[in-house]
Amino acid sequence: MIQNSVEFFKNLPAKQCTECGEHIQEQHECYGSKCENCSQISY
Predict the structure, then answer these.
(1) Is the pTM of this model over 0.70?
(2) Is residue 7 part of a domain?
(3) Of 2, 4, 10, 18, which is most buried with the most CB atoms under 10 A?
(4) Is residue 34 part of a domain?
(5) What is the rounded distance in angstroms from the CA atom of residue 2 to the CA atom of residue 23?
(6) Is residue 2 part of a domain?
(7) pLDDT surpasses 90 at 13
(8) Tell me: the pLDDT tens digits for 14-41?
């Protein structure tokens, strides 16, 4: 049976940070794999 594409995306698990494992609040223009805290660059 072919699944509706909307249902497919609704059933995907929440994205997690690759460093700390925290759930990432995704945005449509972001493909990052780290949360906001882990992706900050320190100078």
Answers:
(1) no
(2) no
(3) 18
(4) yes
(5) 29
(6) no
(7) no
(8) 888 999 999 887 765 567 788 888 888 6
Q: List C-alpha distances in Å: 1 to 4, 20, 27.
A: 10, 37, 30
Token pair 């805290």 in the structure block, residue? 37
Structure tokens at 40: 């900050």
Query: Which has the higher per-residue pLDDT, 20 or 43?
Result: 20
Residues with Cβ within 8 Å of residue 19, at least 6 apart in sequence: 34, 35, 38
Q: Which residue has the tokens 């690759």?
A: 18
Its domain, for residue 22, covers 14-42
Residue 21: its pLDDT value, please? 92
Residue 22 lies in a domain: yes
What is the end-to-end Cα distance of the chain in Å, rounded? Answer: 52
How many Å apart are CA 34 and CA 38, to the nearest integer? 6
